[in-house]
From TrEMBL:
UniProt keywords, alphabetically: ATP-binding, DNA-binding, Helicase, Hydrolase, Isomerase, Nucleotide-binding
Cited InterPro entries: DExx_box_DNA_helicase_dom_sf (IPR013986), DNA_helicase_UvrD-like_C (IPR014017), DNA_helicase_UvrD/REP (IPR000212), P-loop_NTPase (IPR027417), UvrD-like_ATP-bd (IPR014016)
Enzyme class: isomerase
Source organism of the structure: Thermodesulforhabdus norvegica
Listed PROSITE patterns: UVRD_HELICASE_ATP_BIND, UVRD_HELICASE_CTER
Protein name as annotated: DNA 3'-5' helicase
PANTHER family hit by this protein: ATP-DEPENDENT DNA HELICASE SRS2, UVRD / RECB / PCRA DNA HELICASE FAMILY MEMBER
Pfam family, one: UvrD-helicase
Any one biological process term the GO annotation gives: recombinational repair
Length: 646
């Protein structure tokens, strides 16, 4: 096979099949491309069966992309590569085959986060553990499972939840009795099966003629264990970049990447130094940034492409920032003929997307929110809006259906049946509910709770939108509900931030109806945009991993956002959390290195009405790579654009 479009180093990584290979290289150096080329090479040159190649990607989307490239390279369609998957999806496939060994049968149910919470709540009640331990217990169970050795993990840590082992056992027992697993079990059970049944392990070792792992720096302990169980001698290639390890908060351990040569003595280490993605300005600037991290592998990284400096732009507030970016996008589109989908706006938290949605809508620029669901589609926003809708429009059955048992009011199938028996044409679900309540057919907890819901809704109808939201959070108990519902603390805080943002939007509307209309409009437009493929992409830094765009805007580059305030302090020691800041710096590195041609960095002086200052990371990029445009600040002397740094 002719190695078209591969450098000699990349080609070396592709051709080496006799010993394990680790490709350690910076962003945009062609790691994913090399990995994909290697799969094609194994199939076309070495006669490997595509069905016997296990290739692990970080996301499902990346797996799809890899398969479509493989199709172009080998002529084989997507189904020919059944094992190009994420870790979870590959393991679930194995688990389905082997589930009878651990007392499960097909089809296995995978419990959602909220179902997990429900089960765990029952366990705490049963074992007489205070329910304040619900969330900590949930995190500990997940961490224990991902450590690969749950009991050892629970022994070794000073556990903040009393009787965690008992809780852990009972929780798993209930899952199994329901023929169900949680997300973490998918990996853990596969590991346990392969440890306990050597013949199963051998079967899969023999099944996979070759194993490849992309984004290896973000594998956790358990994933690493599974990989080691599956690998035979030498049939392994991993690629990664320790500069881009951004998931340690979820248990990823870049040290497996760093110590790969010790775990696999005799492996070939391939370093790629040329960045084929970005201009030399972007590469040098991001290298200079990451050089501030102490914990890293030294790598050289250069680009041969010339390019303009990075434009660093200060704006007044988040709205100005969004509109400035929107205008810029229009300029690139109209003036330079750059298609919308070649542009991306990246931000640290989903919380930031709202201002962009508004600005892009206002300036009629098509956009798509990538990865995370859009702000208005998130559960918490929809739930809260459904309360407001139910209060002002009792005929909206969908809204009422959404909240009737959220937070839980003990309204089960039985109660719903009773309510529905009061329905007739012209009687809404809500009316039927109140009728059923009046008639006395609903009893017990549900009756009391629904009576209270009725009162709550009539109170909400008389409040301002802002007051209404805080009423739902506090009096209706939605905040506590959200806390239980959230996957983990990060998730909970993200959702709270969404609610905070909604409150901010609401504070500008005069009445509930006006406010709801505004929300509905935004949602409509967005749905249209989601259908057509064309649009500027909006996404978080995390979601941008592995992707590239001709034009990139890294927005909200402010202290407190990036680095995020949550990572700044170590909660135990109350000291500056250096590891946390280093992870944030890597995140910034990931964001900057997505750009192919032009990179913009923006920040606002005020966000959500609070004053902000530019991120420390901005000052870590050498001046020579940047054009800095700051706002002249009256009363503080005139700022010289070029010498306004700190
Ligand atoms: N030898 C090469 N010649 C020309 N272009 C290349 C070469 N290698 C890679 N590229 C191109 O460079 C870009 C970056 O490649 P790729 O996405 O594989 O890098 P990566 O190392 O996986 O980046 P990241 O760390 O961001 O995941 C892609 O557009 C790819 O097609
Ligand atoms: Mg990649």
């Amino acid at each position: 096979m002719e190695m078209v479009g591969l450098s000699p180093e990349q080609e070396k990584a592709v051709r080496c099949t006799s010993s394990p290979v680790i490709v350690a290289a910076g962003a945009g150096s062609g790691k994913t491309r090399t990995l994909t080329a290697k799969i094609a090479y194994l199939v076309k040159e070495c006669g490997y069966s595509p069905q016997r190649i296990l290739a692990i990607t970080f996301t499902n989307k990346a797996a799809d992309e890899m398969k479509s490239r493989l199709r172009a390279m080998t002529g084989l369609d997507e189904e020919a590569f059944p094992w190009v998957r994420t870790f979870h999806s590959a393991c679930f496939r194995i688990l389905k085959q082997e589930c009878h060994r651990v007392g499960l049968e097909r089809p296995i149910s995978v419990r959602s986060d909220s179902q997990q919470t429900t089960i765990l709540k029952g366990v705490l009640l049963e074992l007489n553990v205070d329910k304040k331990y619900l969330q900590p217990a949930k995190w500990l169970i997940s961490m224990a499972k991902n450590s690969g050795d749950p009991y050892a993990f629970m022994e070794s840590k000073k556990m903040s939840v009393p009787g965690i082992r008992g809780i852990y056992d009972r929780y798993n027992e209930i899952l199994r009795s329901q023929n169900a697993v949680d997300f973490d079990d998918i990996l853990l059970l596969v590991k346990e099966i392969m440890q306990k049944w050597p013949d199963v392990r051998r079967h899969y070792q023999e099944l996979f003629d070759y194993i490849l792992v992309d984004e290896f720096q973000d594998s956790n302990r358990l994933q690493n264990d599974i990989m080691e169980l599956l690998v035979r001698n030498g049939n392994l290639t991993v690629v990664g970049d320790d500069y881009q390890s951004i998931y340690t908060f979820r248990g990823a351990e870049p040290r497996f990447f760093l110590t790969f040569p010790e775990s696999f003595p005799g492996c070939s280490i391939v370093k790629l130094e040329q960045n084929y993605r970005s201009t030399s300005t972007i590469v040098s600037a991001s290298n200079a940034l990451i050089a501030h991290n102490r914990m890293k592998m030294e790598k050289r990284c250069y680009s041969l492409k010339e390019g303009p400096p990075i434009l660093a732009k200060e704006l007044f507030d988040e709205r100005d920032e969004a509109e400035w970016i929107a205008h810029k996008c229009r300029e690139y589109f109209s003036g330079h003929g750059i298609p919308w989908h070649d542009m991306a706006v990246l931000y640290r938290t989903r919380f930031c997307s709202k201002a962009f949605e508004e600005a892009f809508r206002k300036l009629r620029i098509p956009y798509r929110i990538v990865g995370a669901r859009g702000f208005y589609e998130s559960k918490e926003i929809q739930d809260i809006n459904a309360y407001l809708v139910s209060a002002v429009n009792p005929r909206d059955d969908l809204a009422f259906e959404r909240i009737i048992n959220v937070p839980r009011r003990g309204v089960g199938a039985g109660t719903l049946k009773k309510i529905n028996s009061f329905r007739s044409p012209g009687t809404s679900l809500q009316d039927a509910c109140w009728l059923a309540l009046q008639s006395g057919t609903i009893t017990g907890k549900a009756a009391a709770e629904l009576t209270q819901l009725k009162e709550h809704l009539s109170v909400i109808a008389g409040l301002s939108p802002k007051e209404a939201i805080s009423f739902v959070m506090d009096k209706v108990g939605y905040e506590s509900y959200l806390q239980e519902y959230a996957r983990d603390r990060e998730d909970f805080i993200n959702r709270l931030e969404n609610v905070e943002l909604l409150t901010y939007v609401a504070s500008k509307s005069s009445g509930i109806e006006e406010f709801l209309e505004e929300c509905a409009l935004i949602r409509e437009e967005q749905d249209e945009d989601q259908d057509g493929k064309e649009g500027v992409k909006l996404m978080t830094f995390h979601a941008a991993k592995g992707l590239e765009f001709r034009i990139v805007f890294v927005a909200g580059v402010e202290e407190g956002l990036i680095p995020h305030w949550r990572s700044l302090f170590d909660e135990d020691s109350l000291q500056e959390n250096i590891k946390g800041v280093e992870e944030e710096r890597r995140l910034m590195y990931v964001a900057m290195t997505r750009a192919i041609e032009r990179l913009h960095i923006t920040w606002a002086l005020s966000r959500q009405g609070r004053f902000c200052k530019p991120s420390r990371f901005l000052w870590e990029i050498p001046e020579e790579f940047i054009i800095l445009e700051r706002i002249e600040q009256k009363g503080r002397g005139c700022y010289d654009h070029h010498h306004a740094r700190r």
